Amino acid sequence: MITEDIVLASYVNGDFKCTLYSSGTFTKESSVVNPKAAFPSSIDVKITNYCNMPCAYCHEDSTTKGRHGDISLLLDQLAILPEGIELAIGGGNPLAHPNLLQFLYAVKQQGKYANITINQGHLTQYRSLIQELVVNDLVKGIGVSIVNVASLPTWLTSTAQERVVLHMIAGVHTVKDVLTMLELGAPRKILVLGYKTFGRGITYFDKTVEDNLQSWIIYVRSLFDKCLLSFDNLGIEQLKLKRFFSEEMWNKLYMGDDFTHSMYIDAVEMQYAPTSRSSTDQRVNYSNIIDYWNSAHN
Fold first, then answer.
1. Which pLDDT band holds residue 3 (cuts at 50, 70, 90)?
2. Is 1 among the domain residues?
């Protein structure tokens, strides 16, 4: 059953009018030439570097020795931002953070909207916690990082069908893997991520990954009418997606370069950065998030 797509938040951000819908759709409109945002509308937030899944391509290099971030300090940083913005909560394994629920309840009270990324291998172990997140409307979107091409559990697809987005990595997964997941009845929202060559992604990268990326470039167009596709900016770049769109359509669909409406917070190291791929010299320690944003964009 498809529910009505309602407006969750509507606000002005610098030169933009921003609208967030219950489907996860986010729109930015502006009549200004070269418009600028006054603050990030979307923040990728790493709350832990702990994870017990030894994914060979993990760009965060997360392990069971990874530390959890300080949630209280993170909430202080977020508190000065206005209502309506989105937070993409990840790790490591964010479900393992002992203060996850406290954090999500506080985020909701602040009027912000959280999404969370979960490893497919953690679905069974954390079933009750995931269900609690859904029942209490603590997360609007659940990104499931696919490890194995296999059916997702029915308790997830039946109770959170419209919230689930499959996360698949070009270079790790293939176009055929996407089609197989769809044939198995997986939710039809799919986020294709570019391949990150840092962390364990450096040693995992080989000719197979390189050939797989080339195959994506050739065959990605075949997925356009099969599911609801979205891409991160790295995926857009690696798969050369702009070639499929007219200039008018591209300007309508493209959400902008990294760090024009989004940024990254590493709550483990207590740092801001333009993106999760930012180098060490691009990362700064916590101060005032709006001052950081404005100083970087003026």
1. low
2. no
